């Protein structure tokens, strides 16, 4: 029997992303043949992960991490909500957020980046093999400011920085950092609840504004209003639309007698300087993913050859 050294185990782990004990077992089973060991792992572990890759992963966790004047939010999906309570999966999400903070928000670059001795993609594959569910890094967003603070909030948190909805808000200001961080947290809570589309009207997708404009115009055209009247009504309607979807114009969720813009103005005195919201990112777990609807009875019948 070949002598399996720690260096051999390390090399196999680096080339496959498999767990340390799995690598040792593979080398033992193949008498130290590195190529055969890689094939052994592919059959036992990575093939298992590949089989699961076709399954819909719409659960998981949103991870939020803030360091100084930079913050990141990531979404890592799994197949079931149960996995979100798994320490191994939680550690994976935190690691990915940490890597993304330095690499950027490009998913391919994050997956290719090293986390210790292996890449993020390999770490994900390793976790798939250990937990037995399909997983994937879906998206990431990063915000930073030159001076100021990044506020953050995690809704339905399962542990620090991990939950079902994650928000980061960038506040540019020369004011006091502690005051800005607290204000950022409050605004992040508001964003989590209100889900604005942009900071202000200038940040809205022109296609979204045009669609709203057409809906309003068609509505009043059908009522027989003249063109010059419709134009005025549409402009008024768009102002109402902006109040609904633009962060600064929304009514503040904790006090609907004032807007978020007014909240900022009031906070400037305590902070000791002007405050500008330069951006926000809000991730809600699984939004936009088409979940598979399964008929359990039909599945059982099919398995029994009765369908």
Explained architecture:
The protein has 307 residues and is α+β, with helices and mostly antiparallel strands. It folds into three domains: 6-52, Orthogonal Bundle (Helicase, Ruva Protein, domain 3), CATH 1.10.8; 59-193 and 276-284, Elongation factor Ts, dimerisation domain (Tetrahydropterin Synthase, Chain A, 2-Layer Sandwich); 205-243. The protein is built from eleven helices and eleven strands. The protein has helices at 6-16, 20-29, 34-52, 87-103, 107-112, 120-131, 177-194, 206-222, 227-245, 260-271, 296-303, and strands at 59-67, 70-78, 114-115, 118-119, 135-144, 148-155, 162-163, 165-173, 251-252, 255-259, 275-284. Helix 4 (87-103) runs antiparallel to helix 6 and helix 7 runs antiparallel to helix 10 (260-271). The protein is elongated. The model is unreliable at 46-54 (pLDDT under 50).
Largest sheet: 4 strands, antiparallel
The best one-word shape is elongated
Structural class: alpha+beta
The amount of beta strand, in percent, is 15-25%
């Amino acid at each position: 029997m070949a002598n399996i050294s720690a260096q051999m185990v390390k090399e196999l782990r680096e080339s496959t992303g498999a767990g340390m004990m799995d690598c040792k077992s593979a080398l033992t089973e193949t008498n130290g043949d590195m190529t055969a060991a890689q094939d052994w792992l592919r059959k036992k572990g990575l093939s298992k992960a590949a089989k699961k890759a076709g399954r819909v992963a719409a659960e998981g966790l949103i991870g939020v991490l803030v360091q100084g004047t930079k913050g990141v939010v990531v979404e890592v999906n799994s197949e079931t909500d149960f996995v979100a309570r798994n320490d191994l999966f939680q550690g994976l999400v935190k690691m990915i957020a940490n890597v993304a903070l330095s690499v950027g928000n490009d998913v391919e670059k994050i997956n290719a980046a090293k986390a210790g001795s292996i890449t993020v993609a390999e770490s994900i594959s390793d976790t798939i093999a250990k937990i037995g569910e399909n997983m994937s890094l879906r998206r990431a967003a990063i915000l930073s400011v030159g001076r100021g603070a990044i506020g953050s909030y995690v809704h339905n948190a399962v542990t620090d920085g991990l939950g079902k909805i994650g928000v980061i808000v960038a506040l540019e200001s020369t004011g006091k950092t502690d005051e800005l961080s607290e204000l950022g947290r409050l605004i992040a809570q508001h964003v989590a609840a209100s889900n604005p589309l942009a900071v202000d009207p200038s940040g809205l997708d022109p296609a979204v504004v045009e669609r709203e404009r057409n809906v309003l115009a068609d509505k009043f055209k059908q009522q027989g209003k003249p063109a010059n009247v419709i134009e005025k009504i549409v402009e008024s309607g768009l102002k109402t639309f902006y109040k609904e979807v633009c962060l600064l114009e929304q009514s503040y969720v904790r006090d609907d007698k004032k807007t978020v813009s007014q909240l900022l103005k009031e906070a400037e005195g305590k902070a000791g300087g002007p405050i500008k919201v330069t951006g926000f990112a809000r991730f809600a777990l699984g939004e936009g993913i088409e979940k598979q609807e399964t008929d359990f009875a039909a599945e059982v019948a099919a398995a029994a050859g009765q369908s």
